[in-house]
Amino acid sequence: MNKNKIPEEISSEICDSALSTASIFDCCKFCQENKHRFKDDECPDCTSPYTTDSFTGPQSKQNLSNHIRSSSHASACVALHVACTNWKRVLLLMNGDWHNGTNPLEIPGHVVHAEGVFKNLSSLNDTERNQIFSEYTRFLIVRHPFERLLSAYRNKLEGRTASARYFQRRIGRQIIKAFRVNPSNHSLTHGDDVTFAEFIQYLLTPELSLSNQSNYNEHWEPITKLCNPCIMKYNLLGKFETLLDDSALALYLAGADHLTFPTGHKPSSTRKQLRKYFDPLSISAIRRLYEIYAEDFRLFDYSLEDVLGFEFG
């Protein structure tokens, strides 16, 4: 099957009804290109061809580190809290750097998150980067901005892992000291009971939450800033809501369809919790928070309906 050929006679309606069928990946690609076209329409300042000249600012150069290059002519921007660990497991298998089987879930999480495991675009020279822009399959999986934000909060500030304790000591204590009235000694010492409202207050206080007044922590930095979609021109823009279908298509387009994205991954309960965490927030706070993630909402076609039940006028 020619992976670059899109049957003109296939309609997007047919694609939508048969997205998970392995034999109609050409059809899926047609649907993906329609999805991708929406993003391009929202990016009027995109340049073509996409070369390293597009990365002119220090922020764009810095965010090249989020783009992982695979040895199988694929490049992915792996945003945290968007099936990040499982995608890194699959990319490790694509690179042939795991020799104890082909089940991604058997690869320990700490292995794929270790420093230096993957080559990212920031470690490449301009010639190698231009090759990725012109020859590689580039893909990105996105998630509802507020769902991803809540996932980060629950994982790093409510969690009890070693990584969570690090964030609680480093950021949680800072939040409690800045925003809590009469905090306990335990809270000031451990920072392990930050409320969601306090976390949002922290995000809305740029002098505390922004690094060098330009970037948030990568766990809650908007994906548009992490992954430069208006520069990278991804071949595939998938969504967390259709993770298995879009991941299968990404592997197919990358020539790695002998691998399978983990189908036994633990379903996220974050979406079910959105109203519980967001309802107590003021409309003013949600509006200001929306402004931080406005480009993610706009480019990736998400809405506030799931959180508020209505959109801002």
UniProtKB/TrEMBL annotation:
<comment type="similarity">
    <text>Belongs to the sulfotransferase 2 family.</text>
</comment>
<protein>
    <recommendedName>
        <fullName>Carbohydrate sulfotransferase</fullName>
        <ecNumber>2.8.2.-</ecNumber>
    </recommendedName>
</protein>
<keyword id="KW-0735">Signal-anchor</keyword>
<keyword id="KW-0472">Membrane</keyword>
<dbReference type="GO" id="GO:0016051">
    <property type="term" value="P:carbohydrate biosynthetic process"/>
</dbReference>
<dbReference type="GO" id="GO:0000139">
    <property type="term" value="C:Golgi membrane"/>
</dbReference>
<keyword id="KW-1133">Transmembrane helix</keyword>
<dbReference type="InterPro" id="IPR018011">
    <property type="entry name" value="Carb_sulfotrans_8-10"/>
</dbReference>
<dbReference type="InterPro" id="IPR027417">
    <property type="entry name" value="P-loop_NTPase"/>
</dbReference>
<keyword id="KW-0333">Golgi apparatus</keyword>
<keyword id="KW-0812">Transmembrane</keyword>
<keyword id="KW-0808">Transferase</keyword>
<dbReference type="InterPro" id="IPR005331">
    <property type="entry name" value="Sulfotransferase"/>
</dbReference>
<keyword id="KW-0119">Carbohydrate metabolism</keyword>
<dbReference type="Pfam" id="PF03567">
    <property type="entry name" value="Sulfotransfer_2"/>
</dbReference>
<keyword id="KW-0325">Glycoprotein</keyword>
<dbReference type="GO" id="GO:0008146">
    <property type="term" value="F:sulfotransferase activity"/>
</dbReference>
